Amino acid sequence: MTNKEYWYWLCNIDNIGLKKIQTLIDYFMTPEQVFYAKEDELKQFSILSETDIGKIIISKDSAKIQDAYAKLSEKGIYFVTIEDKEYPRKLLNIFQPPFALYYKGSLPREGEKSMAIIGARNCSEYGKEVTKYLSSQLARAGLQIISGLARGIDGYAHEGALAVSGYTYAVEGCGIDICYPKENISLYMDMQLKGGVISEYAPGVYPNPGNFPMRNRIISGLSDGILVIEAKEKSGSLITVDMGLEQGKNIYALPGRSCDLLSRGCNNLIKMGAKLVSGVEDILEDFAPKYEKNENELKNYDKLLETEEKIVYACLSLMPKHLNEIAFEANMDIIKLSEILFNLELKNYIKQNRKNYYSYIT
Amino acid sequence: MFSKAFSAAVSGIDGIIVSVEADVSDGLPVFDLVGYLGSEVREARERVRISLKNSGFRLPPKRITINLSPADIRKEGTAFDLPIAISILTAFGYIPQENLEKTLFIGEVSLNGAINKVNGVLPIVYSALKQGFTRCIVPECNAREGAVVQGMEVYGFDTLQAVVQFLNNESYKEPTYLNMEELFKLEFNLEEIDFSDVTGQDAAKRAIEIAASGMHNLLMVGPPGSGKTMLAKRIPTIMPELSFEESLEISKIYSVSGLLNNKDSLILKRPFRSPHHTITSAALTGGGRIPMPGEISLAHLGVLFLDEFPEFNRNTIEILRQPLEENEVTIARLQGTYRYPADFMMVAAMNPCSCGHYPDRNKCNCSINQVKRYLGKISRPLLDRIDLCIECLQVDYKDLEIRKRSETSADIRNRVMMARDIQSSRYKNESFYFNSQLTPKTIGEYCKLGKEEHKILEVAFNKMNLSARAYHRILKVARTIADLDNSDNILKKHLSEAICYRSLDKKYWEE
Fold first, then answer.
1. A225 forms bridges with which residues in the sheet?
2. Residue B415 touches partner A, C-beta closer than 8 Å
């Protein structure tokens, strides 16, 4: 058996987690030696129970292990251990780094900056639009976007990056071969072409709730900065931020109105010193010093519009607005307004987020 | 001795003339009642016998046989009590047979000889007129209802005694008379609700105006308290005033259902029916062992408002599909097939999600999947029959404060009536009246687009990923908008507005 196969064996024993592996490796130095350890030798570890030892002994079936390991590559899954040189350097610096990672596609490229974008699953339409915008802008500037493939902000972050064919990586809280949640299957497939899906869990592991906080340490570990879009006061995203702070990452947060529950967490982060993000340049100035805002683009937009279209366009933002609100602000009747909105929609300046709600396209 | 009096039974919303024959002959004193009778008609035997006695008529011990003809139609209800009593009295010689000529009797008698209210007087009197009758004797409580039929002498009586005296020309009574014009005038000035009561919601108001003009079905989506119900209730106030024929048709349905009270002899307001979402399919479309009109027929020529649309039982709602196409409902039962008119405008209202507040994330914590699941409760085929859809916005304090002068129902009604006039002159050679009734074939004929408009629609079609059905609905609505604008051709602005109100697309279901 090869060294990788020994690692694969060690990482896949039932009920043997990071701490127990760490103890065994500290004593035996290599997984190979763990494999050949006698039962009596194992008994000296107080951390291992009777059943654990039983499980270790039963699992020592080299034919089975080799077979299972071979199946990984058949499925297009790569296996990388902490000893390999492909293993992401950044993860070596975090508390309890995973001993092995499974991935599809590729791992984040070393030397390139990466940004984690995280937030609530039940996000607002505004959160969705801002996420897509920021993610695509960051990806276009060359940053790798890392998130968790969850519903809501995570998914939109990947979507934004993929829209400009940027690099984006998802860290899953379940087995690498499972797409959780299912509706993100197209993201899951697309990002393997440019970017990748990463997990510390072996194929077939069910998305248990307990896996997700652990996954968050990898998200923060892989990134150079963490951008929180929308988070309630007690949000899972804040776990990622805490880990990120321990790991010394930059924290960015999108501010919200004081009354918005979904922005409480972000506003609290800003209070505690996270960088307030009002535009993509707030992030890019830390990573890409040469970044210059492309203002010409916006001006060109203006020239193409007629006066009334400009009035309506000026009323819109990334926050979707209802027909009635636009009519009130632009002081126009519905009949005329619907025509102008239709024109703008056809010209690709604005879009309907849901029935009768409009926001502009960036 | 043989005698014959006339009465009528109700089938659907039409009256069928029934002759009540009585024969008195020697034999054992028996009272026999034949002619395919319901149990309440069979019970008439006891009621009639005792009420005759208590009205002071002595019946000699003879064999009495009553036959209700035609004998193959099921007779239901209590309206046959009076004609049975009259025919017996005629057979015994209390009333001369020639005095019953061209006279129709309906009414329930009670044991003391009084005559009680019955249902379905209006359709019966109406068919009696068609059949050549000249006078109708009805319960006093139903006299005004019957008097609506012009050209028929309708007399209302309280007691059996009084009827006999009248028939024998011992007393004189004027037929009940109703001044129709005054009745209508009085009613139209009595509108308590008005569109100007609703603040904000300009988009919804405009959509309602279009819907009312072309009789398009409408769906309103919005959070609780955004005024969906308030708006829906005011839709009848912008529809054209009822004509006499329309009023008569609606009143017939209400008469059959027993919903006309003594004061309203006619239904003069367009119906607004808002059944609760726990309603059963039989109550919605009509039915029961003895079929009665359901809510959709009671909403005939008016508005059927389905609040909390997704909460309705799915099977109940699916039943609406046929009536929405055919404007009437056919109910088949063991005893026969009944047809009730059901030409209504369907207005449905629903919340955007199960808690009702999406997309306001401060109040709504539904996941996107939950939102989609909630929307998905409405079936596609039914959604395809809804031409217009509008999302209402929560009204905030600011809107309530600003007392912007909003239009009254009368202003809107004028425009609606104009648009309807245009439609009725356009479709004078067709079998339908409204733009909403256009079929894909007739759309091609009546909704012609210019070259430029064609191009725009094509662009929009591809860009917005519209379905073929959506395409037809957009054209129908655009036709109505053009009519409201008094424009012969459908222009770009009409199309763009129609697209703005297009029904919920597939993409809102699946994103």
1. A115, A250
2. no
Q: Do A262 and B361 touch (CB under 8 A)?
A: yes
A96 occurs within a structural domain: no
Domains in chain B: ranges and CATH: 2-167 (3.30.230.10), 193-402 (3.40.50.300), 428-506 (1.10.8)
Record: contact B500-A327, CB cut-off 8 A: no
Specify whether A238 is located in the same domain as A320: no
Q: Are residues A121 and A263 both part of a single domain?
A: yes
User: In terms of domains, do A161 and A271 share one?
Assistant: yes
pLDDT value of position B299 = 95
User: Domain with A63 in it: what CATH number?
Assistant: 1.10.150
Question: Does the beta-carbon distance from B369 to A259 stay under 8 Å?
Answer: no
Residue of chain A whose Cα is closest to the Cα of B361? A124
ipTM reported for the complex, 2 dp: 0.80
Residue among A339, A346, A356 whose CB faces B459 most closely = A346
- Structural domain span for residue A277: 114-287
User: Is the domain of A40 the same as that of A142?
Assistant: no
Q: Does B361 touch chain A (CB under 8 A)?
A: yes
Are A273 and A191 contained in the same domain?
yes
Q: What is the 3-state secondary structure (H, E, C) of chain A?
A: CCHHHHHHHHHCCCCCCHHHHHHHHHHHCCHHHHHCCCHHHHHCCCCCCHHHHHHHHHCCCHHHHHHHHHHHHHCCCEEEECCCCCCCHHHHCCCCCCCEEEEEECCCCCCCCEEEEECCCCCCHHHHHHHHHHHHHHHHCCCEEEECCCCCHHHHHHHHHHHCCCCEEEECCCCCCCCCCHHHHHHHHHCCCCEEEEECCCCCCCCCCCHHHHHHHHHHHHCCEEEECCCCCCCHHHHHHHHHHHCCCEEEECCCCCCCHHHHHHHHHHHCCCEECCCHHHHHHHHCCCCCCCCHHHHHHHHHCCHHHHHHHHHCCCCCEEHHHHHHHHCCCHHHHHHHHHHHHHCCCEEEEECCEEEECC
Co-location of A124 and A236 in the same domain: yes
Q: Which pLDDT tens digit goes with each residue over B197-208?
A: 887 788 899 999
Asked whether the beta carbons of residue B460 and residue A342 sit closer than 8 angstroms, the reply is: yes
Picking from A43, A74, A105, the residue at the C-terminal end of a domain is A74
In chain B, residues with a C-beta closer than 8 Å to the C-beta of A262 are: 361-362
Of the candidates A124, A322, A325, the beta carbon closest to that of B361 is on: A124
Which chain B residue has the Cα nearest residue A348? B463
Statement to judge: residues A181 and A300 lie in one domain = no
Contact B202 A333 (CB under 8 A): yes
- State the total domains in chain A: 3
**pLDDT tens for each residue of B160-213:** 999 999 999 999 999 998 888 777 777 666 678 888 888 778 889 999 999 999
| B186 touching chain A per CB within 8 A | no
For residue range A282-308, what is the model confidence (pLDDT) as tens digits?
Answer: 999 888 666 555 555 555 556 667 788
- Contact residues of A toward B, CB < 8 A: 121-125, 127, 151-152, 183, 259-262, 320, 322-325, 327, 333-336, 338-339, 341-343, 345-346, 354-357
pTM: 0.85
Q: Residue B364: list chain A partners with CB under 8 A.
A: 122
Nearest to A334 among B203, B393, B464 (CB): B203
CATH of the domain at A346: 1.10.10.10
Chain A's closest residue to B219, CA to CA, is A355
CATH code of the domain covering residue A264:
3.40.50.450
Task: Choose the final residue of a domain: A287, A321, A352.
Answer: A287
Per mean pLDDT, which of B77-81, B381-385, B400-404 is the most reliable? Answer: B77-81
Q: Which residues of B touch A345 (CB under 8 A)?
A: 463-464
